[in-house]
Design a protein that fits this description.
149 residues, mainly alpha, globular
Length: 149
């Protein structure tokens, strides 16, 4: 069996290890909380009008638009809350990652904005992919209840 804790390269400046190693979990938690909170703020307007994006999602080929618009609203708003608190982190992050990959397609291909129009969505999708693979850490509700998918 492989020990994944030893896969990090040795520090170039060993004196700094005393500073950044204790912050490892805190930095990961901060990334998760910020990503989740920003997803909530992005989804807030959609959750107030959950069927408002029906036309837009149908223009991308997702029918019926009302269903997909509601799912988009719930994923961004409630999924963001789950990610921020670290509850069901992997499934919520997976749903968010799929939403972001669709926005990569929308901005990059449909609206023909290329990389410039889709780069933020690519970055956000990569952040949520990290949490799909990694899950949450010890500073999460998942850890407090002792379960993680």
């Amino acid at each position: 069996m492989t020990d994944f804790t030893s896969t990090r390269p040795p520090a170039m400046l060993p004196a700094l290890q005393r500073f950044y190693l204790p912050l490892d979990t805190t930095a990961e938690t901060l990334l998760r909380v910020v990503a989740g909170a920003l997803l909530v703020t992005h989804g807030y307007g959609k959750i107030l009008d959950p069927f408002g994006a029906a036309g837009m999602v149908e223009s991308l080929g997702f029918y019926p638009g009302a269903f997909w618009s509601l799912l988009l609203s719930a994923t961004e708003f409630f999924g963001g809350i789950l990610i921020a608190i670290g509850l069901l982190t992997r499934p919520a992050s997976f749903a968010a990652m799929i939403v972001l990959l669709v926005t990569v397609y929308f901005h990059g291909i449909v609206q023909d904005q290329g990389l410039g129009g889709s780069e933020k969505s690519i970055l956000w999708a990569a952040i949520f992919f990290f949490f799909v693979i990694r899950g949450s850490n010890s500073q999460s509700v998942d850890a407090k209840i002792g379960k993680q998918i």
